[in-house]
Amino acid sequence: MRRRGKSRTDFVRDLAIIGSGRHWLAVALALSLLALLPFVLRWTHNLNWLTFLNFTLLTVIAVLGLNITTGMAGQLSLGHAAFVLAGGYALGVFTVKLGWPFWGALPVATLLSGIAGFLVGIPALRLRGFYVAVTTLAFFYIIQFVVRNIEITGGIHGLIGIPYPYVGGLAIKSDIRWYFLLLVFCVLCILASVNLTRSRLGRAFLAIRDNEDAAANLGISVGLAKLRAFFIGALFGGLAGALWASYVSVVKLDQFTIWDSIWYLGMMVIGGAGSTAGTVLGVIALRLTSQVLHSIGSSGLIPLSSNLTIYMTYAIFGIAIILFISFRPFGLIAMWQKLKANYKRWPFGT
Amino acid sequence: MDQPADIILAIENLSLGFRGLKALDGVGLSARKGETISVIGPNGAGKTCLINCITGYYRPREGCILYRGRNIIGMKPHQIARLGIGRTFQDPTTFPHMKGLDILMAGRYLHTRTSLLEGLLFFGRSRAEELASRQRVEEIVAFARIEEVRKVPVLAMTYGQRKQVEIARVMAMGPGLVLLDEPMSGLDEFMKEVVNELILDMRQRNITIILIEHDMRAVMELSDRVVVLDHGKKIAEGTPTEIMRDEQVAEAYLGGLSYEREAA
Amino acid sequence: MPQINTIVQLIISGVLVGGIYSLIAMGFVITYRSARVFNLAYGQFAVLGAFLAWTFIGPPGSPRLPLPLAVFLIIVSAVGLGLLVEFLFFRRMIGRPLFASFMLSLGLLALLHGTIMLVWGPESRVLGATVPKGPLFLGKFVLAREYLWSFGLALVATLGFVYLFRRTRIGLAMRAAYDNQVAARCLGVSARLNSQIAWVICILVATIGGVLIATVNGVSIGLSELVLLVLAVVLVGGLDSLVGCVLGGLILAIGSNFTSYYLSQYLVGVESIVSVSLMLLVLLIRPDGLMGIKMIKRV
């Protein structure tokens, strides 16, 4: 082929997640800060913030899954909380009812949740857009119904006494140990999610999100890609659910409701749908908001009952979603990128 | 059927209908390896329908489409793509939110084998394939002059850039047969020249091309043979110069021109 | 034969409830058809309507306001709310991808839910006199008067909206906008007026439906479960068909009547699952719904 323009030859660097020495430094700094954080919190007697961090890490894992199904592959899912629920219940049943060890139950529970995702994806083979959203919603209710009506899941009482894991003889019991375990899982999930965006499958997801018909002409089997998107998304959700169940040692039906599905979508949109970093940002932003509201409510500064705090959270989350969709549809991550670009151009303005 | 061995695409007696409306009526066409065949005709003549039939989006009522001697009617669009048939779309905003580079890399989908797990781990084969694809894509980026839209989503590109990316995507797919649906429509003279060169490059690499185009200069310059459709029927076929002289074609397609000539 | 009597009774009450569902579903379809918004907050609008009605009418016994005035106020506030919602939220969504309006409606769902709970709290309430209540004996069958009245009102409202959509200029403009908002604009259809009318009708219907359902079931936030049922009704019928709404409403109401009568003692929550599963089944067999039109795909 004749060469006319310029082709890049340094794309090996372009391909790396962490491109430069400065970038490495930033990542190392961030990770060591995250590692120091729990000790600082313990030192300053802010252990409820550690619990908050742990739930945030769990939510990040769950929402990363939704970001794959909905953000990347464009399959609107209102049923993501059902996969988290399925993962939690699967771990509960295997450990409590069948007596499996945690590390044996975790992968199986995750995989089972993934298979549930696969099944939920089947109606999506023939449907598009909203119809997919509604079928996932329907599956959410069906999974709830099944869990409520079969005996092994403990019905409406749920399962209690789910064991905690051991890592090299160390019992993961305290919040601080859970923090490190969850941090490792979370970083691995983020890596997997980023890897997906630079692999053929991730691009196939983007292609079917943008245009199913044209994607087929790239040789992508649209149906299979959709099933895979649901499968991977549910894997992440199931992993989060299983860890969640072990962390709080109980699993109950009202732990994961349809509202959680909605919040997951909201976090994804506020962060920036389709972007891994954005998703993480979105989760942190919404979780932080609710924690701050909660702290205000319980501090007694403003007379708010716990119920009122919850209702206020609903309203504020709703407003946040509406504002972002209306004015910043690409989310926090786009705002951050713009800020970065402006900083580089300084002082020449926007 | 006995056909010369180098016939890539053979279409016989193709008919397509939507609820009584006949979009294609007994159309036949054959293309040898490396040939460029233009399909022309007024709007609504069934040109895009023909492409949609070949690529499996529409299922014809009757007739057969043989690609390298194999009947592809009834196959799904992605199965047909796997045989090496690529196409562009008339509206170049095919993947509105994808970036230029991602679209071209997605074009390499069929040339990579990475499994789901390898993709999640980005190790070994995944990485190697990614680098190999990128190498090829960068060559195409340079040739198609779309360096500046590597990291730009399609919606932020100009119309011309979208058309370039659309053709570059098909080139990245490395197909044996390419169907181009009006690659020049809506472009200015300079951009037409760029697209022209891209098509010429595909010709040089012995890729069979079916070109739908209204720009007669491009049709004359690029094609070996021209097929004229009108109301779903093939009304003429021949070399570009033959077609230019054909009375029936002038009647159907260049009707305005012959009218002007009379007036003069 | 008591068996036959039970079945007839279940069918009759199914038809009555189905009529109300159909009306509510129609409000959903109207914004989908004219503004392409898949409004998941719809159930919350119905709840809001019911709570507003409760505020104006009050609990049974002494009405706070005379009924005509209360009805007038309810209608005025519904129209006002429709204009407000259109102006604040959905006007920006014209020409935006479907995902945006979908997420917007989810945000609205959360906002309305939170606001309703902040203002009225979670307790369930009984709505005072709107339509006559009590049993009506027809030979061997018993009908609830409030069902009958609600059904009658729903029928009148439904016919009115069908007339509006099919026979008037406004309806024509709205159908044109459904096909292509930008092109409709070029034909002189005012996108803004269209969108306003659609939202006013949508919220008016939601309010009427909410009040009718509240008359039967009482006022509570739980009414928003309606949204799922309405979605099911709409999707069984076909998203783009008003006739489909009626059909879907009847099928689902009669279906869930039967299952809740025969099965709910064995399985917890089976009646809500039935509509959902029926919807899934229909979508799997006929992705465009029973009455939906299959479009020719243009590539």
How are the secondary structure elements laid out?
The complex is a heterotrimer of chains A (350), B (264) and C (299).
Chain A: H1 11-15, H2 21-43, H3 47-72, H4 80-97, H5 102-124, H6 130-149, E1 159-160, E2 166-167, E3 170-171, H7 175-197, H8 200-210, H9 212-216, H10 222-248, E4 250-251, H11 258-271, H12 276-299, H13 306-327, H14 331-345
Helix pairs in contact in A: 3-7, 3-8, 3-10, 3-11, 3-12, 4-5, 4-6, 4-10, 5-6, 5-10, 8-10, 11-12, 11-13, 12-13, 12-14
Chain B: E1 7-18, E2 21-32, E3 36-40, H1 47-54, E4 62-67, E5 70-71, H2 77-82, E6 85-87, H3 100-107, H4 116-121, H5 125-144, H6 159-173, E7 177-181, H7 189-204, E8 208-212, H8 216-222, E9 225-230, E10 233-238, H9 240-245, H10 247-252, H11 255-263
Parallel strand pairs in B: 3-8, 3-9, 6-7, 7-8
Antiparallel strand pairs in B: 1-2, 1-4, 4-5, 9-10
Helix pairs in contact in B: 3-6, 5-6, 6-7
Chain C: H1 2-35, H2 42-57, H3 67-88, H4 98-120, E1 135-138, E2 141-144, H5 145-167, H6 169-179, H7 181-186, H8 191-217, H9 226-237, H10 242-263, H11 270-285
Antiparallel strand pairs in C: 1-2
Helix pairs in contact in C: 1-5, 1-6, 1-8, 1-9, 1-10, 2-3, 2-4, 2-8, 2-9, 3-8, 5-6, 5-8, 6-8, 9-10, 9-11, 10-11
The overall average pLDDT of chain C, rounded, is: 81
End-to-end gap of chain C: 59 Å
- DSSP summary: helix tally of chain C: 11
Major beta sheet of chain B, specifics?
Answer: 6 strands, mixed
Largest sheet of chain C: 2 strands, antiparallel
SSE order of chain C in H/E notation? HHHHEEHHHHHHH
Overall shape of chain B: it is globular
Architecture overview:
- The complex is a heterotrimer of chains A (350), B (264) and C (299).
- In chain A, 73% of the residues lie in helices and 2% in strands.
- Chain A contains 14 helices and 4 strands.
- In chain A, strand 2 (166-167) and strand 3 (170-171) form a beta hairpin.
- Chain B has one domain: Rossmann fold (3-Layer(aba) Sandwich).
- In chain B, strands 6-7-8-3-9-10 form a 6-stranded mixed beta sheet, sandwiched between helices. Chain B has a 4-stranded antiparallel beta sheet with strand order 2-1-4-5, covered by helices on one side.
- In chain B, helix 3 (100-107) runs parallel beside helix 6 and helix 6 (159-173) runs parallel beside helix 7.
- The termini of chain B are far apart.
- Chain C has one domain.
- Chain C has helices at residues 2-35, 42-57, 67-88, 98-120, 145-167, 169-179, 181-186, 191-217, 226-237, 242-263, 270-285; strands at 135-138, 141-144.
- Chain C has a two-stranded antiparallel ribbon.
- The termini of chain C are far apart.
- The interface between A and B is large, with 41 and 54 residues.
